[in-house]
Amino acid sequence: MGYHTKEKSVVDFCESKTETLTNWVRQVKSKSLCAKTKRKRDLRIIAILSHSLLRAESELIMKQRERAKRWAQMQADLGLCNKEEEMARQQREKIDNLWKNDLSGLDNFFKELDNVKTVLVN
Q1: Quick one: which of 4, 69, 76, 89 has the fewest CB in 10 Å?
Q2: How many other C-beta atoms are found inside a 10 Å radius of the C-beta of residue 43?
Q3: Is the pTM of this model over 0.70?
Q4: Can you tell me the distance from the alpha carbon of 27 to that of 30, in angstroms, rounded to the nearest whole number?
Q5: What top-level branch of life does the organism fall under (predicted)?
Q6: Three-state DSSP class for 9?
Q7: What value, to the nearest 5°, has the Cα angle with vertex 99 and ends 98 and 100?
Q8: Closest alpha carbon to 85 in 93, 96, 77
Q9: What digits encode the pLDDT tens for the residues 23-65?
Q10: How far is it, in rounded angstroms, from Cα 37 to Cα 16?
């Protein structure tokens, strides 16, 4: 008859809210770009799209931060140790030690320069 529904696939059903929001942001960016590049621009539409995009992006960032925070908390609760994080920490410590050695060497050099007496030649 005249009624037609779009069947949802399994992928659509399993898609998370964050992924849905990410897709929506991508589509709004595309529409906003099209609206801005038209020869005859409608500033009202551009303003609505820009405002919607701004709010959606801020909500997406908030959701991503919440997800990262929950993931970190879960890892801490389970006592999981991320090998990559451990290697990065060790690398940072190694670099810090190198810098400290170099800086202390420079510090000693400048102290020696302060101790050097200038000899006046007549």
Answers
A1: 4
A2: 9
A3: no
A4: 5
A5: Eukaryota
A6: coil
A7: 90
A8: 93
A9: 988 999 999 889 989 988 899 999 999 999 999 888 888 888 8
A10: 32
